[in-house]
Amino acid sequence: MLKFISFGSGSSGNCYMLSTPNDTLLIDIGVGIRGLKKACRDYGVSLSSVRHVLITHDHADHIKSVGSFSDDYKVPIYATQEVHDGINRNYCVAKKVKPEMVRLVEKEHTMKVGDFSITPFAVPHDSADNVGYFIEAEDTNFCIITDAGYVTDDMKKYISRAHYLVIEANHDEEMVQNGPYPQFLKERILSGTGHLSNRNSAIAIAENMSEELKHVWLCHLSEENNHPELARKTVEAVLRSYGIIPGVDVKMEVLKRTTPTGPYELA
Questions:
Q1: Residues 111/116/121/126 CA torsion (nearest 10 deg)
Q2: Which of 69, 146, 175, 182 is the most exposed place for a label (fewest CB within 10 A)?
Q3: Half-sphere exposure of 45 (CA within 13 A, CB side)
Q4: Contacting residues for 234 by C-beta, under 8 A, at least 6 apart
């Protein structure tokens, strides 16, 4: 059975674990190694079981500990060439990924990595590059999309195939517009290379989900421009407007920003 844990989801640090009985991968390591170790101990999970790390993009809240983790546990790091280059340039990454641990992924190219079949796909964001991941294991389809300025046709394609979906619901647009951020930062967040709002995330789910979608997790909520209950209510209201009943047609939860959420069994 596939299992999923979120160890952090937001600008303070992002890290997700997906595992089969025999294999484990991490998606992003933007949290501290010490906190990650403690969370794993609390869950009875050994970090030594992790065999692969996938990176979405090169912003610090997704890669801060990637080099240290790779070096400590001798785990290869999978990312596009542009993201690897960005990791090497990012001063927030104190220890870089050693060349022998670098693995390249190509968008729209499916690769077999241990128990997982992994397809990266383009996601628009103001980073060196950014990908979502569509992951197949044990007849289960898992999709993660984070830090997306808008929803592309490729993203829609993978949402429509997902049984389990992690998707960004970063902000409430009115909170951004009326908040204390300087104008340039507001424009960045709301731009096509910024972040998905609660409403746009909800529309993406509602217009592209299939009857096989079982569970949605909203990720990467802004601390300043969103609130878990607001995100949940906004998305639920949009889904209902499309005739989709949350909790009946699909389960939905909000991932915690700075503490673990899960574990979940993905049957």
A1: -110
A2: 182
A3: 29
A4: 169, 172, 198, 199, 202
* Predicted TM-score (pTM) above 0.85: yes
| Strand partners of residue 24 | 19, 50
Reply yes or no: is the peptide bond before residue 260 cis, omega within 30 of 0: no
Q: Per the structure block, which two tokens stand in for 127? A: 């980073």
Closest CA relative to residue 201, chosen from 184, 182, 177, 226: 226
175-187 burial, b at 16+ Cβ within 10 Å, e below that, comes to bbeeeebeeeebe
pLDDT digits (tens, 9 = 90+) for 187-245: 999 999 999 999 999 999 999 999 999 999 999 999 999 999 999 999 999 999 999 99
Is the confidence at residue 152, as pLDDT, over 90?
Answer: yes
Q: Give the residue among 140, 147, 195, 146 at the shortest CA–CA distance from 162.
A: 140
In this predicted structure, what is the pLDDT of residue 267? 80
Under 8 Å between Cβ of 18 and 28: no
Q: d(Cα 102, Cα 117) in Å, to the nearest integer?
A: 18
CA-angle at 164, arms to 33 and 169, nearest 5°: 70
